[in-house]
Amino acid sequence: MARQPQRGAASRRFGIPYISAEVSEIIAQIEKDTADPQLAQSLQFSPTALTHIKRLVAAGGTILVDTQLITADIDYSTLEGTNTRVRCFIDDPEVLQLAEIRHTTRAEIAVDIGLAIPGPKLLVVGSAPAALNRVLIRRQHEPLSEVCVLAAPSGFANVVQLKEKLRDSDMAYIVARGKKGGTVVTAGILNAILRAIRPKETV
User: Fold this and answer.
1) How far apart are CA 7 and CA 30, in angstroms?
2) Which residue of 56, 97, 123, 128 lies most exposed, with the fewest beta carbons within 10 A?
3) What would the 3-class secondary structure string for 127-145 be?
4) pTM of whole model > 0.85?
5) 3-class DSSP assignment, residue 71
């Protein structure tokens, strides 16, 4: 009974199309952790995003990260007792070689390698817009039903547009709209989500 008014207030406050009690609590925690109400208001979750991440953790899927900076900031205690893997291919020698051969970015090659891993995946983009662009291009040609995207790179027109394209797609997503974001912010969002779902998914 006490939770219902809070949920309605959060829906009005954050002004986003989809919000559940669980999503509302995560957004409120992110605002508390970052002391940034504008960031909290910019966050949008697709209806299936949390379900996808819960399934990934339960199944021992893969969290793909676009920079080692985020990898270093993940709270790995939230993944204890699970078989979930965190992978960052951006500095992998194969990625470096293929990027040079194909005259493209390491981020794009890293996405391609990561998406080839079997099982459910969460693609975390906090630094490289090229990674977000690549997954959107891939979605035009294949289902990617096992992929959820957390996109919170900071930047101006091109980055903002890419995040809006993700929102307009049929993929599962979590997006920090507008110019808000960056590696520290992205890691914080990911950690808040993992902490929120941990009691339900691990012993």
Assistant:
1) 16
2) 97
3) CCHHHHHHHHHHHCCCCCC
4) yes
5) helix
